[in-house]
Amino acid sequence: MENKKCFCDTGLPFDECCGLYLSGSQKAPSALALMRSRYSAYATHNADYLMETTYISKRKYYSKPEILRWAKENTWLQLSINEFTETTVVFNVYFLNSENQSDIHYEFSTFKFENGAWYYLEGKFE
Length: 126
Prior knowledge:
This protein is α+β, with helices and mostly antiparallel strands. The chain contains four helices and four strands. It has a single domain, classed as Nuclear Transport Factor 2, Chain: A, CATH 3.10.450.50. Strand 2 (88-96) and strand 3 (102-114) form a beta hairpin.
């Protein structure tokens, strides 16, 4: 079977991009790679990965069933990276919501590197 293109914006095959991180065979090497892989996790309904890559002290603010519900009710169209630093990523996500209407999610995300892995710390939304 032909390797499909990754859900994130790299244009690489999924198995050579975010698939490496979602499968657990590698850890995301940067905040940007983690952010891209988290978008792919929403697109593939991988709530376990989203919880595991959220900073430990912040996980109590999230519900795996709620993440999974939101991931499944939307159709994920495109990720667009606006800017990034070593620990932050600003991005837009384009998707069709549960009413099949076009929607855009803007976020300024902060990440933390700890014990050899990157974690999602928090996001500011507009």
